[in-house]
Design a protein that fits this description.
EGF-like domain, 37% strand, ConA-like_dom_sf, EGF, 8-stranded antiparallel β-sheet, mainly beta, (Mediterranean fruit fly) hypothetical protein, 1014 residues, Jelly Rolls, Laminin
Length: 1014
């Protein structure tokens, strides 16, 4: 059987015209029983463009002209013998008579009764042709007696059966198309109309086509004919997904005002639309991403629009006098699941430009039904074919066609999910199943590559005061971005205390984020309410040329039908937090304008507290509004039409900057710099910060050993919270305390030293001290390397000058250092840190609070707040190590034993400072605990002993001697006690357990010679 444009069908008594029947059958699908042929989607009576070319006609027996067949289509015809047995017609002989006649009512009743147990009539699975024909022929469940079926009158329900050739083809009728069959040589009475009608009707009962899948990738979308909404139009579809966010459907008037946007937001379905009187929002449902089918209807009734999801309805009323949706001739097509990428270069064609940035729908769609012609009836829609797709006002250009002509990411409903077998995506990449296998979607990740395995370079830009990024949707009369919650996240680095970071607003509502006086300032206006916050912690500034992270989050919650509540939270560096709230007559947050890094006139912006544009670097500036996420620097760099770029913006930040700081994280961490070229005149300056009282900051020597005669030396150290300068030009050493107040307070401090020959002056935080080196040397020849932050374990055996106490005690500097300048030359110490020691010397400087939280010290150790580290004091325990986790060895003496330890590899040492900690327990009141000795001709010694149950420390240097006695109770109680002894030149200190220490002083002697310890 074929479908053609013939007007006549041979019949009894001549030709009988079938124009009436073709009007009845114009929107039905024809399928054959007992065959494997494919089934087309149905076609509406008003669709004069539909063609039989979408179907291929087959024949299982006898000759059949191939000229009647065309391209095959997707879908399937069911082989349901029980219902088709009444239609089994075979051409035996031309003269054979019709054998039986059976009322259609009885056939349908019998078949419906057989299937009344709820089992659906099976239909074979089908694949979509070219992955583009995604329509579903929805089956009817039953036909009531007297009910019209696709326009059939009840008088057409009588039917007969005859022995005709098995019908093995499928096709569809165009409007006003007639039937003709060259395979029927017999005369057919008028009742053959009912036979053909039954074929069409049975197809609708047994042959539903499959839903189409959208994979959610960046090229995934489906395109359909325009929706004629009229004043009382409707649109319906069904979807299922497991993703809470995604664009379901969009259409507009071509870029003027009117639009319909349907999307999932956190599992709820939101309809946003504009019919010329302002945008409206309707939200229905929750947890709709449950993997089940949900039916959606959008109904119009003049000024009222309703959204119905699974029978639950919400409505909104449009203000104004005219409610038509654009002009049908210029309206856009209907897009499902996403937007074509070519729109990103033609945002003016969108009434809602933000739709191009919405996340794409990932799931299944079926039964998209609406009217696509003025005055036409609603019908199930078919996806547009490539030849019918245009890019805007005209056809796609050559560059767009390969990517956009055929919608990507669309598959048939019964395809296998390759991601269930294997998910190769890394770092949170989304696995998407395609016909060629799984692919990885890396959008909004810090990684890219085939499997999201490669770390991306950060999106960053440099601003120098004249550059900024912006968008203004109001300039094109486009609708603003609206949301129930939004967030701003950015990273900044600057030395300037003031500058505009980010601004967003719409009308009188605004949010203004800026740097003010080195702190983070935020002002917000919403309806008639205002909020302001300023985050500036004590002793912390954010204009320190370090990367800082700022996150601002707003969320609206409805209190009543007329009042809502907005919660505002700002977090800096994930540590410093401020929050506030405001209540008022608002329902959503709106953004039609955004400025990043500045504006033409920043002081004119609402809520402005600073009048300067930002100077510095910004990284990863993101603005999110519900499902929408905009990486604004990435968009600007890629040339997005949404973003306007003012000035010459460099999309990178300098990798190295001589002023970048470094952090020395341990006593052993240090950097080794090339020799400092000094001569007769030289200078040095830097900034530092720490909370630890002792540490060697800088040390440089000449070619001679530090303790040799005429050795040249320069050093800066921190002792007991004060800065000390050591300078020796080879003719005598000078040691000067440069600070008047303690500088171990965690703040940044400035140090500047200038010298000219023997004369020098040093400044700490602007307070100057002058001094002169002894002797007649005027040249500072530092041929050796310069050590910054300490010397490290590799130099422990070097005999440093005894006057440099932190070098003797192996106490490196723990803290931050920046802006190092040697004789006018800036030194990029951050670059040295990256090259030499990326583990313990970090090219950054941040403050960590509460480092002792959680009690990191074990076995009774005491935690002391260091610089970004806990310092565990284990002296009152039997353990040692960073966390007091290593058990110490214990020695037992019987009164006649001793142990000898040689110092300085047996050569002895000369020091100006010592620290000694000993734990003991005994039942005897008197006994020698420790004794040091020097060369045979030196009287220098240190003795620690228990005398009458108390601890005595005796120090003899040259001809001077001093005794200290500590311990308020008898210590020979067989319990553990702790002795702490320290000397700084002539200053002595002795402490037992936790009682206050005893202090003393040796006059006119500071250097002690030690060779061995007993």
């Amino acid at each position: 059987m074929s479908l053609s444009d013939h007007n006549d069908l041979p019949g009894e008594g001549g030709s009988r015209r079938l124009s009436n029947f073709s009007a009845y059958a114009m929107s039905a699908t024809i399928c054959s029983p007992g065959s494997s042929s494919r089934c087309c989607s149905n076609s509406n009576a008003n669709n004069s463009q539909d063609s039989i070319s979408d179907c291929q006609l087959h024949r299982h027996s006898n000759d059949f002209s191939s000229s009647h067949g065309r391209n095959s289509v997707s879908g399937s015809c069911s082989n349901n013998d029980s219902i088709y047995q009444q239609l089994n017609t075979t051409v035996q002989q031309p003269q054979q008579q019709l054998q039986a006649k059976l009322p259609l009512r009885q056939t349908l009743r019998r078949q419906h009764k057989n299937n009344s147990n709820g089992n659906a009539i099976n239909a074979s699975s089908s694949k979509l042709r070219n992955n583009t024909n995604a329509n579903n022929v929805r089956p009817s469940s039953s036909i009531a007696e007297g009910e019209h079926i696709e326009g059939y009158p009840p008088t057409a329900y009588d039917v007969f059966t005859s022995s005709l050739t098995p019908f093995a083809s499928c096709g569809r009728l165009k409007q006003h198309q007639k039937l003709h069959s060259p395979l029927l040589p017999i005369k057919i009475p008028a009742s053959v109309y009912a036979v053909t009608g039954l074929l069409l009707l049975c197809t609708m009962l047994v042959s539903p086509c499959q839903a189409f899948q959208l994979d959610g990738s960046q090229t995934s979308f489906a395109q359909f004919r325009k929706w004629y909404t009229g004043l009382n139009g409707s649109l319906e579809l069904e979807f299922k997904t497991e993703q809470p966010n995604g664009l379901v459907l969009y259409t507009d008037d071509g870029g003027t005002y009117d639009f319909f946007e349907l999307k999932l937001v956190e599992g709820a379905l939101r309809l946003r639309y504009n019919l010329g009187g302002g945008a409206h929002i309707i939200t229905v449902g929750r947890e709709l991403h449950d993997g089940h089918w949900h039916k959606v209807q959008v109904l119009r009734n003049d000024e009222q629009t309703s959204l119905i999801v699974d029978g639950v309805s919400q409505s909104s009323t449009t203000k104004g006098k005219e409610f038509q949706f654009g002009k049908f001739a210029t309206n856009s097509d209907v897009y499902v699941g996403g937007m074509p990428n070519w729109y990103s270069t033609k945002l003016a064609l969108l009434a809602l430009p933000s739709v191009i940035f919405e996340p794409r729908f990932r799931g299944a769609i079926r039964n998209l039904v609406y009217a696509d012609q003025p005055g036409g009836a609603t019908r199930r829609q078919e996806m547009k074919q490539p030849r019918d797709i245009k890019c805007g006002d005209g056809p796609c250009d050559n560059g767009e066609m390969p990517k956009e002509k055929v919608p990507r990411g669309v598959r048939g409903g019964n395809t296998t999910d390759a991601c269930e077998r294997s998910d190769p995506c890394q770092h949170g990449g989304i696995c998407i199943s395609t016909d060629s296998g799984p692919i990885c979607e890396c959008k909004n990740l810090e990684y890219d590559g085939q499997y999201c395995e490669k770390e991306k370079a950060p999106s960053e830009a440099t601003f120098r005061g004249q550059q900024f990024l912006s968008y203004d949707l109001g300039q094109t009369s486009a609708e603003p971005i609206v949301s129930a919650q939004d967030a701003i996240t950015l990273y900044f680095r600057t030395r300037q205390p003031n500058g505009l970071l980010f601004y967003t607003g719409h009308g009188t509502d605004y949010l203004n984020l800026a740097l003010r006086d080195g702190g983070v300032s935020l002002t917000m206006g919403l309806a008639n309410g205002k909020q302001e916050m300023h985050i500036k912690p004590s002793k912390v500034r954010f204009d320190d040329h370090q990367w800082h992270k700022v996150t601002v989050h707003r969320r609206i919650q409805e209190i009543s039908s007329i009042t809502s509540f907005c919660r505002l939270v700002t977090v800096v560096d994930d540590v410093y937090t401020d929050h506030s709230h405001i209540a008022g007559k608002f329902t959503m947050l709106s953004s039609s304008r955004v400025y990043v890094g500045g504006a033409v006139n920043p002081r004119a912006l609402l809520g402005a507290r600073v009048h300067n544009n930002f100077v510095g670097c910004l990284r990863k500036v993101e603005f999110s509004a519900d499902t929408l996420l905009l990486n604004l620097i990435d968009l600007a760099k890629s040339g997005s039409k949404l973003i306007q770029v003012a000035g010459n913006v460099e999309y990178q930040c300098p990798i190295g900057d001589p002023q970048d700081p470094v952090t020395f994280t341990t006593r052993e961490s240090h950097l080794v710099l090339p020799p400092w070229e000094t001569g007769k005149q030289s200078s040095i300056s830097f900034k530092f910060r720490t909370k630890e009282p002792n540490g060697l900051i800088i040390l440089a020597t000449g070619s001679k050993q530090p303790r040799s005669k005429n050795a040249v030396l320069f050093a800066i150290e921190l002792l007991n919270g004060h800065i000390y300068i050591h300078l020796d030009l080879g003719s005598g050493a000078a040691k000067v305390r440069a600070s008047r107040r303690r500088v171990d307070d965690g703040d940044w401090h400035d140090l500047i030293l200038r010298r000219n020959g023997r004369d020098a002056k040093v400044s700490v935080d602007g307070v100057w001290n002058e001094f002169r080196t002894p002797g007649d040397g005027t040249i500072l020849e530092l041929d050796g390397h310069m050590y910054v932050g300490g010397t490290g374990p590799a130099y422990n055996n070097i005999a440093w000058p005894p006057a440099i106490w932190t070098a003797t005690l192996r106490q490196g500097f723990v803290g931050c250092l920046r802006d190092l300048v040697l004789s006018g030359k800036a030194i990029d110490i951050a670059a040295f840190a990256r090259l030499q020691d990326s583990a313990s010397v970090k090219p950054s400087c941040h403050v960590q609070a509460n480092v002792c939280a959680g009690n990191p010290c074990l076995n009774g150790g005491t935690c002391i707040e260091g610089w970004n580290r806990p310092i565990c004091d284990c002296t009152a325990t039997l353990y040692a190590g960073p966390t007091c986790g290593r058990e110490l060895a214990t020695l037992a003496f019987n009164g006649s034993q001793h142990m000898t330890v040689w110092l300085g590899n047996g050569q002895g040492t000369k020091t100006q400072t010592e620290e000694l900690i000993i734990r003991f327990k005994t039942s005897r009141p008197t006994g020698l605990i420790l004794l040091t000795s020097a060369e045979s001709n030196s009287p220098d010694r240190l003795e620690i002993a228990l005398v009458a149950g108390r601890v005595r420390a005796s120090v003899r240097l040259s001809d001077r001697e001093k005794n200290l006695l500590a311990g308020q109770s008898v210590l020979n109680d067989n319990n553990w006690h702790t002795i702490r002894f320290s000397r700084r030149a002539s200053n002595l200190r002795l402490q037992v357990d936790g009682v206050p220490p005893v202090r003393g002083m040796l006059l006119h002697c500071s250097i002690c010679s030690l060779r061995k310890l007993k």
